[in-house]
Amino acid sequence: MALRDHLRPWHALMVVVLLTGTGVSLLRADAVTQRTAFRALLSGLFGLVLFQFTVGNVWGYAVEYHNAGGEWTDLPFLTPFVLAGVAGVAAAVRTGSVGLGAWVAFWVFVFVAAAVALGAWVLTGYREGPA
């Protein structure tokens, strides 16, 4: 089987993120040396890890919810996104730091999504339990 049969659009997106992170870091450097190129590559890899951790988890949440029979317009599915957005904007406005707002939004999303998943699991178990 050829390599192109194993690659997915997600892989291409990861390469774009890596190259973008590396390129932005190189553009910020005064001169391109081995040291700055190495740091730029590390910066690109760090950006890729952050991208996979955040976007990958959110995408996984959406896919698993849909695979479990839910719709992406359901209130339980949308609740983590809405609360994370509100918390992120509030944190960014209060502190003046977009980075902190994004950090708060991500963790609010994680905790609310976990609470929704736990609630759905308990509710499903309760409905399927013995009468």
Description:
By secondary structure, the chain is mainly alpha-helical. The chain is 84% helix and 0% strand. Helix 2 runs antiparallel to helix 3. It is flat.
Q: Shape, please?
A: flat
What is the average per-residue confidence, as pLDDT, rounded to a whole number? 88
Which H/E pattern describes the elements? HHHHH
N- to C-terminal separation? 52 Å
Q: SS-based structural class?
A: mainly alpha
**Rg (CA only):** 20 Å
- The total beta strand count reads 0
**Quaternary assembly:** single chain
Task: List low-confidence stretches.
Answer: none
Tally of helical segments: 5
Instruction: Report the β-strand fraction as a percent range.
Output: under 5%
Helix content: over 70%
Largest sheet: none
Please supply descriptive tags for the structure shown above.
single chain; 131 residues; mainly alpha; 5 helices; 0% strand; flat
Topology (elements, then pairings):
Layout: H1 3-6, H2 9-28, H3 34-67, H4 75-95, H5 98-128
